[in-house]
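Thread: quick sanity check before group meeting

JM: Hey all, I'm pulling together slides for Thursday and realized we never actually wrote out the predicted structure for the chain we discussed last week. Dropping the sequence here so it's in one place. If anyone has concerns about the input, flag it before I start.
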Amino acid sequence: MNLRKHAALLATLITALALHAADLEPKLGAKGKVLLEEKFDGEKVPAGWNKNTGKISVAEGVLHASELASDMHIGAFRKALPVQDCAIQLDFKFAGARTFNVGFDPAPGELKKKGHLFSLAITAESWNITEHNDKADPNSKNVARAKAAVKFEAGQWHTLLLEVKGNDVVAQVAGREPLRATAKDFHVKKPGLVFRVGGKDGQEVLFDNVKVWELK
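JM (edit): ok, ran it. Output follows.
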């Protein structure tokens, strides 16, 4: 490799490492108290990370998550953490899976609604912020409040910052235009983080460096 190509490769690597390592700054407020910091450095899934369907495990310092066909349901897991206005940062990498979601349910008693509140859904080709339907109302439908065609390369780490303040939501990934959405019920109290991963058996999304702040 000649010196010019070597220098270009080194510059690309340095830029990628900087984007991966740097904390993103919220656009809806300022980071307050740290509510959660999880690096998955142990040998087991940390206490409080609860699987509903699919498979989760910890290996080599990251959380592995996948769907199981036998469940006949997208892989889903949760981290109980009462929040309202907050910012969530995490690193993710597609390792075969086709999609993952991160979002919230409304806390009990907050809404006359059954089901999820909203989710940010990411695939290799796009992302969207969707307000979920009321499962108690057969006429209710999911509503995509924001969406964009954006590439998220498989096999590469990406750092996501998802923030909610009042009824506003912003999602950021370094190098992409932020995704913004608003809906009248987004402000409610939330009992924790909700994750979902879709794909065939053994197709994973990897997660690391999950950090949650109050958003002032």
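AS: nice. Confidence is low (pLDDT under 50) at residues 3-21. The two ends are 50 Å apart (CA to CA).
JM: adding both to the slides.
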